[in-house]
Write a structure and sequence with these properties.
The complex is a heterodimer of chains A (329) and B (162). Chain A is an all-alpha fold and 329 residues long. Chain A is 77% helix and 0% strand. Classes of the chains: A mainly alpha (329), B mainly alpha (162).
Chain lengths: 329, 162
């Protein structure tokens, strides 16, 4: 008889891993060899022993649902950013961002405009008012030649700056952004150059929108054009015909209140006054932006006029109150 | 997820920690998912591929999980030492200790015999085991036999269950 079975072959026999031919030979040998038959029997018991030991483990719950959920989550997390970038071309991403921006800029209702009109514009325009009305420098600003007074390095009647501004008048956002810059700096130190530049930019913008090229300082750079620019600085947005009246009455009321001294008001009243003033200013700014964008829109103009009216009434009421308070003292 | 049971059971047998076995199983299938784009394993080698990754990850995890082992063994000692008073149910306790003893016996078997035995127990063919462990298929039978013997020796010593 041939040599006895090695343990590997025996194991393969028990595991059913032998080829039919080898299997047959092994079976024949096991039938004839008592030692190998005993070894096979022992191996079988050990295997049963092993399987029995792990049977509970095999029947133990494999957390299939949990594993599946975890895996799905992990794959989703892995795919989410990839899918976003992979399936959406950069151009269409930009387009969608641009579309949403444009949509928010161009669709107009007074309510939306109020919600949307940027806070930066609001504050910046308030700053412009203060700069023009309160500082003695404002006189120079309104009466003097823009470039000549505060930009000594620039030629006195240089049309370059307005023209340059005119070349990029399309983005209201640009105006608002630069106005926003002005806001912070204005409080630290008067920056008339910045303010006037922004005003000019806004004016050019407004002028183009109004289709009033004669008022834009681009026709020759002569003194007349310069003066027009300066006049515009005093009245940045000639949106309403009677806007100047409102502005001057607001200015006189404001100075009256300040002359009386806001200290005449009780703190509660003063806080309320300031809060209302902020609201009214916001309304003015918002509706002016809207009116400037759509010069034909009579609703927007009405809104602006109403906002001015509100501000005048508010200031009048406060001025009366302050006068009463000071006369009582 | 056809082979998740084998992957999970193998990982759990090596790690003796459900949470870690879940982590390993998840990572195995994530790697498969990534691999599918590049060079997916052939169907017949899918299970070996999964289990090879599972074993490798489990080994890596084992090296850095001493705290987990200590905790588990302490738990086993406590439950055995208190006659299962802390275990909620006798049947559960029996089963738990039995599995733990078997696993600890398995842990004492050297590689690659242990993995051979484990993979055999998960139902892999010799060919799949050879592919999983990158060994010659003709050695698998003898490695399984040696592993089986070693297990019987160690498990008999630990648990004495016959």
């Amino acid at each position: 008889m041939e040599t006895c079975l090695d343990e590997g072959t025996l194991q393969a026999y028990l595991d059913g891993e032998l080829s039919p031919e080898t299997l047959n030979n092994v079976a024949l040998h096991l039938a004839a060899c008592a030692a190998c038959a005993q070894a096979a029997h022992a191996a079988e018991q050990e295997l049963a022993h092993f399987n029995a030991a792990f049977a509970p483990a095999l029947s133990a719950n494999v957390p299939t649902a949990k594993l599946r959920a975890r895996l799905d989550e992990a794959i989703a997390g892995m795919n989410a950013p990839q899918r976003g970038f992979a399936t959406m071309p950069a151009a269409s991403r930009l387009r969608s961002i641009y579309a949403s921006l444009v949509a928010s800029l161009t669709t107009f209702t007074p309510r939306q405009a109020t919600a949307f009109a940027s806070f930066l514009v609001a504050v910046a325009l308030v700053v412009v008012f203060f700069a023009l009305i309160q500082t003695p420098d404002g006189q120079k600003t309104t009466g003097g030649e823009v470039a000549g007074n505060n930009q000594p390095s620039a030629p006195a009647s240089s049309p370059a700056a307005p023209v340059a501004n005119r070349e990029t008048p399309d983005a209201i956002a640009a105006v608002t952004a630069s106005s926003g810059d002005t806001k912070d700096k204005e409080f630290d130190s008067p920056a008339p150059v910045r303010v006037r530049r922004d005003d000019r930019a806004m004016f050019v913008k407004a002028g183009l929108n109004n289709r009033q090229p004669a008022r834009t300082p681009v026709d020759g750079g002569n003194a007349e054009a310069g003066n027009t620019t300066v006049a515009a600085a005093a009245k940045p947005e000639p949106v309403l015909e009677d806007e100047k009246t409102y502005i001057s009455s607001i200015a006189s009321l404001t100075s009256a209140i300040e002359a009386q001294g806001a200290s005449g008001l009780t703190p509660t009243l003063r806080a309320e006054y300031e809060r209302n003033l902020a609201v009214v200013n916001q309304a003015i700014i918002s509706s002016r932006v809207a009116a400037r964008r759509n010069p034909q829109d009579t609703d927007a103009k009405e809104f602006l006029r109403a906002a001015y009216q509100n501000k005048v009434e508010l200031l009048s009421a406060v001025a009366d109150q302050a006068q009463i308070a000071s006369s009582r003292d | 997820m056809l082979h998740h049971r084998a992957v999970y059971n193998t990982s759990y047998a090596l790690l003796r920690d459900a949470g870690l076995a879940e982590d390993v199983t998840q990572e195995v299938f994530l790697r498969l998912y990534r691999q599918l784009d590049a060079e997916p394993p052939a169907d017949e080698f899918l299970r070996p591929w999964l289990l090879r990754v599972a074993i490798n990850l489990s080994h890596n995890t084992m090296r850095s999980r001493t705290r987990s082992v200590a905790r588990e063994e302490e738990f086993a000692r406590e439950t055995i030492g208190t006659d299962g008073l802390t275990a909620p149910l006798d049947a559960d306790y029996e089963r738990h200790t039995e599995i733990e003893e078997a696993r600890r016996a398995l842990e004492k078997i050297e590689e690659p015999m242990r993995s051979c035995l484990l993979l055999k127990q998960q139902g892999l063919s010799y060919r799949e085991i050879a592919a999983t462990l990158s060994i010659n298929e003709t050695y698998v039978g003898s490695l399984v036999a040696r592993g089986r013997k070693e297990f019987a020796r160690v498990y008999g010593k630990i648990g004495g269950r016959r």
